Amino acid sequence: MSTHTHTPHVLPLRVYWGVFTVLVFGTLITVWSATKDLGALNMPIALAIAVTKAAFVILYFMHVKYSTKLTWLFVMAGFLWFIIMVVITMADYTSRTWL
Amino acid sequence: MTPLSDHVLPAGVPPPTAHHFIDLHQQEEAEKLGMWTFLITEVMFFGALFTAYVVYRNMYPEAFMLASSKLDWKLGGLNTLVLIVSSLTMAMAIRGAQTAKRGVMLWNIVFTMILGAVFLVVKYFEYMSKWEHHLMPGPSFDVEAFGAWGPQARIFFSIYFAMTGLHAFHMVVGLGIMTWVFLKARKGHFTPQRYVGIEISGLYWHFVDLVWIFLFPMLYLLGAHTTGLGH
User: Fold this and answer.
1) How far B88 CA lies from chain A's nearest CA (Å)?
2) pLDDT score of B199 more than 80
3) Do residues B198 and B97 make contact, with C-beta atoms less than 8 angstroms apart?
4) Which of A10, A97, B47, B67 shows a CA-CA span of 20 to 30 A to A74?
């Protein structure tokens, strides 16, 4: 680590413009798909697009793709914690009427 | 002590490495990890509200659709695009610091701040409109507007104001951080050797954008397939 020469990891401009394009198209598809009555599918589709957009922001704009394993661990732990909270809370609420 | 001679710094700038770090690289990893730790607490902060949303939406899906269709999806969509562009300009500002392009860095910080301000102005007009249409939860809330779903629609608007309000507060804080970043950048504090200050400020800015990426479809678009987009 001490031999590390400090040069910034500069991403090419096309990466940033590419991510930007993905985000704009993702937003347009989100609005378009929301106008279609897809029944139970509306929610998962909107969520899938939002998660995809978020992944591009985190990996490229926030440089996590080029970060250390420790950073990955922290980021994943944060979102995993959130998923645990939602899943266990909903497991409680949805199963209350079963008794 | 680690020699700092290979890091050429302008006069008057203090040596960058604190004595408890092996070298600048280790220090910067610690600084970035510190910001990520803060952002994880932010995930938890917003996460509680997201969970409340999931619980009540699951309980009252019809009321949420009805209430959501009262929001102006065009303004919400406009603000989504405003934040996406601001994330791009933020990334460009950091790239400007990495490549020692002072003008690129400073102008993109300014663009980011302008877009942040535009977001808040749009949000102000949205809030005013909700106030005028008696959609602010409280004694003046128009329960009649939602048929049998009045009280449940009020829950939707409570969640709407709590989540977008907390988000807007983060935008205000972000503008404060960007003011600090701009002043530091103008004084030449960010160089390709040492730009972690603007980098972790960018992490915060992108995080606030991330939250909105989820808020927009969750709050604005639930009723779009029943009422169409005919606002």
Assistant:
1) 6
2) yes
3) yes
4) A10
